[in-house]
Write a structure and sequence with these properties.
single chain; 404 residues; four-stranded antiparallel β-sheet; 3 helices; 10% helix; globular
């Protein structure tokens, strides 16, 4: 019964909120904004991060912040290639604007998540993956010494907890070979240890897996660790054994499985992935529709009904969310227009802080999305904009978080 409860709760939510959604106008802002934090975000200053106007500067994903945990640097993938799939990792010092290249000549699977670059080990290192000499590798670079360490081969990188030293890795989803499980790698020592076995997923959720991706061998795909490093969520994948990883049908990837790494047990299964992001206390998962799955109580709550949503993440204090969304069908939206929306998880109000055209940029087979995310102090939101010939990283800044 515990296994079915989240799904049944989801059905109840769908049935009880459909008429509410139908009654809501397709607004870009709540009719009344009383939340002080949202009023502050309405006046955010928005600027590009990188100095160059003639190349891509792409933040990897909404599950990781491009700003270092101490707020000193901003990390991004820089590329002059039209498709944004080949480039360098750079950091920019926020106080001075000085940019420095960490790693050169990387090859990405696509421009959507580029090198999956992310801060790790409290900001001492940056982890990433690269297609190098015909093989995928996972590596980390020390930002002070510039020393690169190859951590694993024939694997790709998920998203770890920036304060910790462990990153999750998995076999290539289209052709995993012997690497079908999730593993954790310590970026300091290089130690590799198993985290979740594909056989254990099948033993627990075999029928659900077959229903989603069919029968046969599977691998575990795209792990995202909780902020405390004790939990992980991931998909299952059934590859086609192709050598062409730049193909939309290279594998079938479905589901959302949540696992307690410390207790070595499954917490839950959900058929919908929903672009999930962890809450800062590691006890909840926010997904599309501004739904939060509260794992400790096996309940689901819908917040900010009517808010646009696509890729959403939670502020460090757990009070706000930020999301991107195609707003073409909303209010005064235009074809190709997207917005960055900040909302309250307490008052259920929301406001659009920036609107922009987002239909150009990197010409990758899988295009980048804005992927907004808060800085560690909650005063900045980073996101990509794909307008004109380039996809560029932007930052929205407020001077201070209003006191309560």
């Amino acid at each position: 019964m515990m296994r079915l409860l989240p799904f049944l709760s989801f059905l109840v939510i769908c049935m009880t909120t459909t008429h509410v959604l139908d009654a809501q106008p397709w607004l870009l802002d709540s009719p009344v904004i009383t939340t002080p934090e949202l009023r502050a975000w309405r006046n955010a200053r928005i600027l590009p991060v990188a100095s160059s106007l003639n190349e891509h500067s792409i933040h990897s994903y909404f599950n990781t912040c491009p700003e270092s945990p101490d707020g000193r640097y901003v990390l991004y993938f820089s590329s002059s290639a039209a498709n944004g799939e080949k480039g360098d990792l750079r950091i920019m010092e926020r106080a001075t604007g000085v940019e420095r290249t960490l790693v050169t000549n990387l090859t990405a699977e696509d421009a959507h998540r580029v090198a999956c670059q992310q801060w790790i080990a409290g900001g001492r290192m940056v982890a990433y993956h690269d297609f190098r000499d015909g093989l995928w590798i996972v590596a980390a670079v020390d930002i002070e010494s510039g020393r690169e360490r190859i951590l694993a081969s024939d694997r790709q990188l998920g998203f770890g907890a920036p304060a910790g030293e462990w990153v999750p890795v998995y076999g290539c989803h289209w052709k995993p070979g012997k690497h079908r499980n999730l593993e954790l790698i310590n970026v300091t020592t290089g130690t590799i240890k198993p985290a979740v076995l594909a056989s254990d997923v099948l033993a627990r959720y075999g029928q659900e897996v077959v229903r989603m991706v069919g029968e046969g061998d599977i691998s575990l795909f795209f792990p995202v660790m909780s902020p405390d490093g004790k939990r992980v969520m991931f998909k299952v994948s059934r590859g086609t054994d192709t050598d062409n990883f730049r193909a939309r049908k290279a594998s079938k990837r479905e589901g959302k499985f949540v696992y307690d790494l410390a207790a070595q047990r499954f917490i839950g299964f959900y058929e919908r992935w929903g672009h999930p992001a962890w809450t800062p206390d590691s006890t909840g998962i926010l997904e599309k529709g501004i739904r939060i799955y509260y794992l400790n109580t096996s309940t689901i709550r819908r917040h900010a009904v009517g808010s646009p949503s696509n890729h959403q993440s939670v502020s460090p204090d757990g009070r706000l969310y930020v999301t991107d969304s195609d707003i073409a069908r909303r209010e005064t939206g235009k074809p190709g227009e997207w917005g960055i929306i900040v909302g309250s998880l307490e008052t259920n109000e929301f406001t659009t802080i920036h609107r922009f055209m987002n239909r150009d940029g990197a010409r990758s087979w899988r295009k980048p999305d804005p992927h907004p995310v808060f800085s560690a102090d909650g005063k900045r939101v980073y996101f990509n904009i794909s307008d004109g010939g380039f996809t560029r990283l932007y930052v929205a800044t407020i001077a201070a978080i209003p006191a309560r």
